Amino acid sequence: MELHRRIVLAGGALFLSGLGLPRRARAADLPALRIGTLENGTVNWEIQTIRGKGLDQARGFSLQPLILAGTPATQVAMQGGEVDTIVSDWLWVAQQRARGEDFTFLPYSTAVGGLIVPKDSPVRSIGDLKGKKIGIAGGPIDKSWLILRAWSRQVLGADLADLTEQVFGAPPLIMNAAETGQVDAAINLWHLQALMQARGMREIASVAQAAQELGLDARTPLLGYVLRDRWIAANPTLARGLAQASRAAKTTLVQDDAAWQPLRRYMDAANDAEFQALRAGWRAGVPADAPVNADNAQKLFATMAALGGDALTGGLTTLPKGLFWWPEQAG
């Protein structure tokens, strides 16, 4: 268990508080489903809802979160068998599957951000960004950035990468750079963008709208639960249970404002406006209760790959078969 000790934050393996001894007693009699997650990740909102409302136990399992120190740590834990599932993007899952891993993808979220500017900025459209500086969370192969670049080629006849100066950095740094005027515009994770907009910044281009205008299906989920084919085959009831509990949590969080109150302490919202912006952004990212359309995903992949190259795709030209899983396939 050396891997476990190395990647788990001290004292964090059972971070979901307020769930008392009765739950633990019941959970001891149920098979565990281990999920690797980040301490401040938005996935925790769904995990907390599943556990807090007993949606896992009602389906015959106990969801047990393991807090890890970063996205790479969740992926290492998944590869090493320390957890049964994590949430990641299907590009990573596709690369792993192409290398021989039997990973597959269950839809979790369609949430994406956009291009935002300060409230008083003279920039009204992407055409106004010529010669200006854009802060981009992640790196040159950030998926939102690639889609916006492809869109700019269509609407402007020029690539935003050629028209602007880019500054790449960690999401909190990009957030700070945008709010302090160090960059003229920013692309960030959806939840940080929601906070930035709640604080007065405005969106001039939506990634979802850009994708739609490129002829892509903006409803294609980019994030999902990662599972193993052989784990699903050995645990079909657990696999279906996870999918059902996830959908039940989503339905609750879409329909019931009160269900968000226990989550507020995990949401880093300084006021009601930020809380409401985060809630609205999460709800907007709930995917359809349906399998991923593999053809639509391939079109999206090809669009991003044309600009991201091997650094994005890992050398893949097409998405591998079996990449997307849906509970009906569990038999």
Q: What this model shows, in words?
A:
The protein has helices at residues 2-7, 20-27, 43-52, 71-80, 90-98, 143-155, 160-163, 171-179, 190-198, 207-213, 229-234, 236-255, 272-284, 294-313; strands spanning 32-38, 62-68, 86-89, 103-109, 114-117, 133-137, 165-169, 185-187, 202-206, 223-228. With 331 residues, the protein is an alpha/beta fold. The radius of gyration is 20 Å and the shape is globular. Helix 3 (43-52) links the parallel strand 1 (32-38) and strand 2. The protein starts with a helix and ends in an 18-residue tail after the last helix. It has two domains: 2-110 and 221-330, Periplasmic binding protein-like II (D-Maltodextrin-Binding Protein, domain 2), CATH 3.40.190; 114-213, Periplasmic binding protein-like II (D-Maltodextrin-Binding Protein, domain 2, 3-Layer(aba) Sandwich), CATH 3.40.190. It is 44% helix and 16% strand.
